[in-house]
Amino acid sequence: MQEAVKAAEIAIPFIFYDGTNTPGGTVRMKKGDFVWVFLDKSRKVGAELGVGEQANATRAWARVGVDDLMIVRGTVIIPHHYDFYYFIMNKSIGPGGRRLFDYSAEPPEKSAASPQPLTGGLITAAEAKATKGLPDIATLEGAAEDPIETKVVDRRWYERNKHIYPASTWQDFDPEMDYANQIRKDGGGNTFFYSK
């Protein structure tokens, strides 16, 4: 059952963040994949889209490594070495009482029967490809999620701007922390007030 859950596909919509929100798209992942795999796939999307203001943005994204990137889920920086399965099975709660990765912990339902050919018994090449093909990414769990919830951030940008809002509110994931009841304070000890 654990392997079936880990093999289940999910969709993770995301943005690239460098002080502004740049649409990134949606990445197809498995629940058992590690965060660094997501960052590698998002890096490739960045190269394809040529995200950034540089004239050679495509080449810059092709050279960037996953260690130079980080994923910020809400306001929590997720370390590279965790897999999504960890957050799903532990139902990890982030600030505001929302689950960090709100995906089902149940194995996917098996399809009742293999699709029947549309023509009278013989399967055409197009039908064979359609039955073998992957499900549309828009039908995967998580595809309708708000992309702003998942930010892909260049670590160098974060280091230069971590004293400026909103990066000043981001915090590293700690499995021992109770984020739901946490009282957030700034560097001066003043309590953050958020509206819901």
TrEMBL record:
Domain called FAM50A/XAP5 C-terminal: residue spans: 9-183
InterPro entries per UniProt: FAM50A/XAP5_C, XAP5
BP term (GO), one: chromatin organization
Recorded GO CC terms: nucleus
UniProt superkingdom: Eukaryota
Pfam families on file: XAP5
Protein name per the record: FAM50A/XAP5 C-terminal domain-containing protein
